[in-house]
Amino acid sequence: MLNIVGLPMTEVEAALERAGVEGKSVRMRARQLWNWIYVHGAQDFGAMTNLAKDFRALMAENFSLARPRIVTEQISSDGTRKWLLSGGPGVEFETVFIPEEDRGTLCVSSQVGCTLNCRFCHTGTQKLVRNLTPHEIVGQVMVARDALGDWPSTKENRRVTNVVMMGMGEPLYNFDNVKAALTIVANGDGLALSKRRITLSTAGVVPMIERAGQEIGSSLAISLHATNDALRDQLVPLNRKYPIAELLQACRNYPGLSNARRITFEYVMLKGINDSLAEARALVKLLAGIPAKINLIPFNPWPGAPYECSDWEQIEKFAEVVNRAGYASPVRTPRGRDIMAACGQLKSASVKERASARRILSETSDVISP
Ligand code: SAH
């Protein structure tokens, strides 16, 4: 059975043709399905009451609308929710919903595990298992809407108002799937979140940044965390490949960049490592001329982490330097720490199977995703 959640419109059309839907009506049918799936959150074809019975039956025979399976759901004392989802045997990934007064942000994963090994990040201690598919990326938003009673997508007072690609993984190392998924998230007849409410965060995959702007067009966030290459090489090893100067040049060239559409620079506060006031001054100097927001993130600890969070007093002093330079620089309040849902705390138990084991698993698996 083909799961059509996460398929581009053109592929839905092709699938309908293969299933025998008459040529003339394919386009219209695909649009109707799309509307039921992404605007109304339909979970079975029977609910699509304005579609002919025969058509619904044909759909139910051929296609599935299943979401990634929820393995666990945890709710933090501050209202943050974390779902552990499964994309099949040995493939588990996390999604976090962060409710705030004026918005609700869903933190979405792009990979199971990660290749980047940032020293302060828990996900970085988990080897890459695999890229998530468009189905699994879009599915994270759908699971959240299901659980929060957040359908239809177009209603007022939605709970999920923003999506940030800041969960597990490096989205620019899974470009095609992330792009396919975000195209559906941003589509007005899809999950209907405008591109400015979608933020893609990268550790700095320089050659992909321009393409991201052109082809995805979301807001951009950069995990900067250091103001010189010597330190950034250690914290974010990807810096050895794409040093700060090249990264910032790519930022200056980001399509659509303006004072109304600024790049967010994330800076994790590590005690005694990158939190001196000299570094605060270096940070504002470095970003001069780039329409930027600065997001100071208190380091979130995890078992065995080699760092500590900066003292609150130091974070405030650091923020003051940044503020005086004209940046609003909100310090990101840690959310969901008690359920290990805060920035950089995500990690699943999934490990990369040996290819032979994976073949056996996939042969016995009854979960088929596109
Ligand atoms: N790979 C992408 C997406 C992950 S985003 C990227 O690097 O941008 C996750 C954000 O949380 C990044 O800014 C990351 O640097 C930050 N982060 C990672 N570990 C953290 C921790 N322990 N405490 C606070 N922030 C952390």
- The N- to C-terminal Cα distance equals 10 Å
Radius of gyration: 21 Å
Query: Major beta sheet, specifics?
Result: 9 strands, mixed
Number of domains: 2
Task: Write the H/E string, N to C.
Answer: EHHHEEEEEEEHEHEHEHHEHEHH
Q: Which fold name corresponds to the CATH topology of the largest domain?
A: TIM Barrel
Strand content: 15-25%
Structural commentary:
With 370 residues, the protein is of the alpha/beta class. The chain has two domains: 2-64, Orthogonal Bundle (DNA polymerase, domain 1); 69-353, TIM Barrel (Alpha-Beta Barrel). Helices cover 33% and strands 16% of the residues. It has eleven helices and 13 strands. It has a nine-stranded mixed beta sheet, covered by helices on one side. The chain is elongated. The protein starts with a strand and ends in a 6-residue tail after the last helix. Bound molecules: S-adenosyl-L-homocysteine. Residues 118, 120-121, 166, 170, 201-203, 223, 266, 268, 297, 299-300, 343-344 line the site of S-adenosyl-L-homocysteine.
Short description:
This protein has helices at residues 9-18, 26-39, 53-62, 134-148, 175-186, 206-216, 229-235, 244-252, 277-286, 312-324, 355-364, and strands at 2-3, 63-64, 69-75, 81-86, 92-99, 104-107, 111-112, 130-131, 162-165, 198-202, 219-223, 263-269, 292-298.
